[in-house]
Amino acid sequence: MNKILEKIKLFFSETKTGHQIKSFLVTFTGIFFGMLVLTPAYNAVFEADLPTIQEFKDLWPVVVDTLYRSIWAIILVQLGIYKYSSSHEEASKPIIK
Fold first, then answer.
1. Which residue of 21, 39, 43, 73 could cross-link 51, Cys pair, CB 3.0 to 4.6 Å?
2. Do residues 35 and 89 touch, judged by C-beta distance below 8 A?
3. pLDDT per position as a tens digit, 37-68
4. Long-range contacts of 88-92, Cβ-Cβ distance < 8 Å, separation of 24 or more
């Protein structure tokens, strides 16, 4: 079990693909939790009252649509970084030697 965890740790810390996956996950998590926190906070501050359950349910299509667009933007940026790296062989080499 420790060998598997060590290989996963090395993959994420020493390869370009691992760094890209890690940056995607960090960005996705930040966007998702940021939207969950900021949407009700925005309503509470700018409308001066807490949203009801029905109002919060009405916001979900907006949150999902923004999340969908954000995920595609992140994917396209990550693919652009991968495509314009000098070569696919270099992309799989460890960054840290």
1. 43
2. no
3. 666 666 655 665 655 667 667 777 777 777 78
4. 90/16, 91/16, 91/17, 92/15, 92/16, 92/17
